[in-house]
Design a protein that fits this description.
The protein has about 325 residues and is α/β, with parallel strands linked by helices. It contains eleven helices and 13 strands. Helix 8 links the parallel strand 9 and strand 10.
Length: about 325
């Protein structure tokens, strides 16, 4: 029911091995991400590994085989209780159903750095972005580009994800400020390129004219582009994430803009926070990355492959 990968040492950790930190005499960090399908979580794993390697720490990655699967993430928490990492960096696949399982980590006195999705519980720090503001800034940028008038379709993410709910709240705020924008349809793309293409395919069949697509993440924007290409149609697209593939489409002009939800930077900061906590250093309760729009004026800074990017310094975000 689970998939577990390890980095930092050239060996595989088998289920049931306890006391990893003691055996290896180095910090061990458990990193929980939601899936292998969203490039944002690939970027997070890269960032965590980069900081851990520099600190001679070891990372155990816990990733559900089935994207965003509650049962698999629950099983991975049980495995972490056996593996006993020194600290965990965690994002919930569902902010409601994962509250109970996460309390088991609290009960086992395994400290947790939370990222991307707020969650009730005991955590040493939270690292993320304001998704309401990201959604709002994305929508406002698009609506201003449209001159405050026209028709849009909305491609939503995973309904259970707090990021999706908050981005939709940001969209709604923008809609109230731009009464000349008409919403033709809204569909659930589940943060998936394939699903978003399917949703957009149907929207294109249902609507002869679509002025713009407001999309809740970049993977889905790529699916929207596939649907448009197949239908031999075009529309203006705004998105969120800032993944390399989408930034290349900003460069080409096929995507108007994307808002930077920088999971690579989040991972660097979250892993630095984890290591600092293990050293007994005091951490801020929250470390929040600012909302930033990536468009034709600044996209080149995001064209560097994630693996080749330097991690931000702690002092850049924590003062």
């Amino acid at each position: 029911m689970r998939f577990l990968i390890t980095l930092g040492l050239s060996m595989v950790v088998l289920p049931g091995i306890a006391g990893i930190a003691a055996a290896q005499q180095q910090p061990v960090i458990g990193v929980f991400t939601k899936n292998f399908t969203n490039p944002a979580y690939d970027a997070f794993r890269i960032g965590a590994d980069k900081i851990a390697k520099a600190a001679n720490a070891r990372v155990i990655h816990y990733v559900p085989k089935k994207p965003d699967d509650v049962d698999e993430q629950t099983a991975e928490i049980e495995q972490a209780l056996i593996d006993k990492p020194d600290i965990v960096i965690f994002t919930p696949v569902n902010d409601k159903t994962m509250v109970g399982p996460v309390k088991k980590l609290n009960a086992a006195n395994i400290p947790i750095v939370l990222f991307t999705n707020p969650l009730p519980g005991k955590f040493v720090a939270y690292v993320g972005s304001d998704d309401v503001e990201l959604g709002y800034q994305e929508a406002v940028y698009l609506f201003k580009h449209m001159g405050g008038k026209g028709s849009v379709v909305v491609i939503e993410g995973v309904p259970a994800a707090p990021t999706n709910r908050d981005r939709l709240r940001g969209y709604q705020k923008a809609f109230t400020e731009f009464p000349g924008i008409q919403v033709l349809a809204s569909g659930v793309g589940n943060y998936s390129q394939a699903k978003a293409r399917e949703v957009m395919d149907q929207m294109l069949k249902d609507h002869a004219e679509i002025d713009a697509a407001l999309v809740a993440n970049d993977s889905m924007s790529l699916g929207v582009l596939e649907a448009l290409k197949a239908a031999k149609r075009t529309t203006v697209i705004a998105s969120i994430n800032g993944i390399l593939e989408a930034v290349k489409e900003v460069e080409s002009g096929k995507i108007l803009a994307t808002a930077d939800f920088n999971t690579f930077k989040m991972a660097c900061l979250a892993t630095q926070a984890a290591l600092r906590h293990l050293k007994g250093e005091k951490l801020p309760e929250k470390i929040m990355l600012p909302a930033e729009i990536i468009d034709k004026t600044n996209y080149k800074a995001w064209l560097v492959a994630v693996a080749d990017r330097p991690c931000p310094k702690w002092e850049e975000y924590v003062r």
